[in-house]
Amino acid sequence: MKLPIVAYGHPVLRKVGEQIEKEYPKLTQLIANMYETMYAANGVGLAAPQIGLAINLFIVDCNPFAEDEPSLKGFKKTFINPIIEDESGEKWIFNEGCLSIPHIREDVSRHPKIEISYYNENWELKQEIYEGLAARVIQHEYDHVMGKLFTDKISPLRKALIKGKLTDISNGQVKADYKLKFAGYRKR
Fold first, then answer.
1. What DSSP character marks residue 50?
2. Are residues 48 and 55 in contact, defined by beta-carbon separation less than 8 angstroms?
3. CA 30 to centroid of chain Cα atoms
4. Active-site positions?
């Protein structure tokens, strides 16, 4: 089932996600719904806060980047209770967007390599190292479960330049090709 995506300005996007247990209610269905929602919105990642749940869960599917990085073909993963253990390498800039912040893209600097521990959808504990675009997508989604957005990582000048657009989004004055949920505002 496709779920509405929470838009910029909603308080749930600023909450640190709570750890969840294996017995979390309807977790398998929630994960399936998150994938369906992400694909319908043409995303490569989706975190639980983006669907209104302040829990420590996100999904990624980096397959759209496989043309640039062939190792990403079939790269689809679920991250439950993730912890980024280490970030390394010289930071690099890449133009990022976010389903919760439609029509805004900005250059964001991130480390090219991460080490992350997490549980997968089968509750198997994993500790893995990712590089390149996979690391970037994972860091972006991890930020969501930490209550951070990619706009927090851009320069004050760039943030000032897009302030009006961010205000419009938080006021419900934006259209997207998917259903958005706003904080106390009706879509106009």
1. G
2. yes
3. 16
4. 141
Residue 186 lies in a domain: no
CATH number, domain containing residue 20: 3.90.45.10
Name the residue range of residue 120's domain.
5-181
pLDDT in tens, 67-86: 989 999 999 999 999 999 99
Average pLDDT, the chain: 96
State the Cα–Cα distance between residues 186 and 188, nearest whole angstrom: 6
Model confidence band, residue 185 (pLDDT cutoffs 50, 70, 90)? low
* Total of domains in the chain: 1
Beta-strand runs (E) in 40-151: 45-47, 57-61, 76-88, 92-98, 101-110, 113-119, 125-131
Q: Are 51 and 6 in contact (CB under 8 A)?
A: yes
